[in-house]
Amino acid sequence: MGPNGAGKSTVLRAISGLLGPRLWHISLAGEHGMSAVRPASSPQVDFRLKYREKLLTFELLRRSFIENRILEGFVRDVTTVQQELHDQGVKYVFGFYVDVHGVPKSKCVPLESLPAMASGSELYTVGALEGMGELGPHEDECEGRPDLDRLVVLPWNKRFAVAPTELHLHDRPYEQDSRNVLIRQVAAARELGFVANVGIEPEFYVIRKTDDGWKPLVASDADNDPTRGYDLEATILAEPFLGPMVEYMNQLGWGVYSFDHEGGDGQYEFNFDYADALTMADQMVVFRLMAKHVARELGCLATFMPKPFQDDFGSASHLNISLADATSGANVFAHDDGSVRYSDLARQFTAGVLAHAGAISAVVSPTVNSYKRFTSQGFMSEISWAPVYRAYGENNRTLMCRLPVNRHCLEVRTADSAMNYYLGMAIVLGAGLDGIRRGLDPGEPLNQDTYKLSAEELDKLGDLALPGSLGAALDAFETDTLAAEIFGHEFHRTFLAYKRQEVHEYGAVVTDWETGKYLRMI
User: Fewer CB atoms < 10 Å away: N or C end of the chain?
Assistant: First the structure.
């Protein structure tokens, strides 16, 4: 699995060798498939990491004879891309980046303008967007540099193609661009000889607005208590939504291998092939767009709110991460003896994630609503299956981390459906690498049902507390020096200030529960 896309021309090889800024060839996902694990020797990765500081602007290329020749080759190649897209019926291209929430933003470029877009013609006043820094109206704009190697034609509307884009300010990667944050951690892993691979298990609800409030896509979901997790009939009845989703995902080469009706009324999950971290983060942007489109076609809403209903299950988005040897591609989390055991390196990575659990929570559980999910039961009629303690186990789903026995990866179970995937993967990867550098030990796995342990039994296990609110998680994020290094100090401050304001707003709102509880109490 995992093509490298169409071959580069001789001229493009010359560009890559001289400048190394980025590749201009294209891998059309609909035709060739999407990479599950991009080869460790991919020149695209090497160029981005090794030569990022040597990027030259489009205009500078015009200033010498040899560079003019290179430019001509570049334009011819982009013209080839245009023709391939034209042949598929594409009329418009988005070079997207995401705001602090992970919501994609972009100008729309007619296909005829692709060469200019590829050269960085599209500028953005990101200071006007959500949590991307305070670039004022008097300051320069960010330049969008699309990664055309990862361009995707949207399978549900092939008039549009999207390409993930890196923002640059003054010819340097913009620090407060989420994708650039992840790219830095991918580079850090490469420096240690690793490639990070990630699999995501996205859960979300598909609901319909009625006169009686929000109801599930399939009305009969609500007829059963407890809810119908894994129910065959409930899954079949949801085929008008699930069928197109699977078709589109497989057109993109994502390798869907299972999907199901989860435990919530109208809640679904998809399982598909893992990929390198950057590819997976890019895919999840498209995944959300896809889910929203398919639901909208049915008159419904696909919601990625972590806990939309107090008496139903929350929506997690478990982040399964492992490291591969950058040369051989071998999973270095696997033990040398070939058993289900984990390597010392995997244990160190896990210890690093646990050591920075508080700061990680602020990023992978990024809303005030996220923390309504972290309860053993709450208002539900059965247990929540949600993580409630900072520890790891083998198949223990009550904990933040799991080292499953059926695959060699670390599953971070606190990650939820509202996560900005670039930032979530970046902080988990950075924390794990910190554990490796420091040789941390996570101790023995905790394989007990912590939902059933008494306070005394829990006290004997030490301090296993996870942040109980976004405010508490932000306190940990604020004081965690590694979090500041991963985000960059400016983005660290921006993220903290933006999320603190969210906490402040939530604390000032008078809810229906409060009115019902106190209006006539006294």
Answer: C
Cis ω on the peptide bond leading into residue 115 (within 30° of 0)?
no
Strand partners, 207: 216, 301
Give every CB contact of residue 108 below 8 A, 6+ residues apart in sequence.
92, 93, 94
Which one, of 157, 136, 167, lies nearest residue 88 by Cα? 157
Do 424 and 413 touch, CB atoms closer than 8 A?
no
335 pLDDT higher than 70: yes
Amino acid letter, 353: V
* Segments in 344-451 forming alpha helices (H): 344-355, 357-364, 421-438
The residues near 43 (Cβ < 8 Å, ≥ 6 apart) are 16, 23
What's the pTM? 0.84
Question: pLDDT tens-digit profile of 385-400?
Answer: 678 888 999 888 889 9
Phi-psi label, residue 61: left if phi above 0, alpha if psi -120 to 50, beta otherwise: alpha
Q: What is the DSSP string of 235-269?
A: HHHTHHHHHHHHHHHHHTT--EEEEEE-SSTTEEE
Give the up-direction half-sphere exposure of residue 297: CA atoms within 13 A in the CB hemisphere.
Answer: 13
Q: What are phi and psi of 94, to 5 degrees?
A: -105, 130
What one-letter code names the amino acid at 320?
A: N
Q: What angle in degrees, to the nearest 10, is found between the helix axes of 344-355 and 357-364?
A: 80
